[in-house]
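Throughout our pipeline, every protein is held as a single compact record rather than as scattered files. Nothing more is needed to write down the fold, since each code stands for a local backbone conformation. The record that follows is passed on verbatim for readers who wish to inspect the format.
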Amino acid sequence: MHIATRHHHLINSRLAMLRYADEYGFKGAARRFSLNRKTVRTWHRRWVVSGPAGLVPRHPRTRAASCTLPRCGPGSCWIGCIASA
């Protein structure tokens, strides 16, 4: 699998965290890198199964807008979102 260049720094950071986790455990790595322990375990599991390709971000490149209401003026959109929630 080809890994996009824009992800190389992120993958290297996650690999560094996994190397730390090998030495200090999931809990220690989670503390050191300010992550949830479950996140560290998830990345470790993906890395074991898929190698570095498993550490590529899985979120879509563009995300859906959080507010689907039309803009009526400055500041009105977020008020509408709160009212419709």
User: Anything to note?
Assistant: DSSP finds three helices and no strands in the chain. Helices lie at 8-32, 37-50, 76-84.
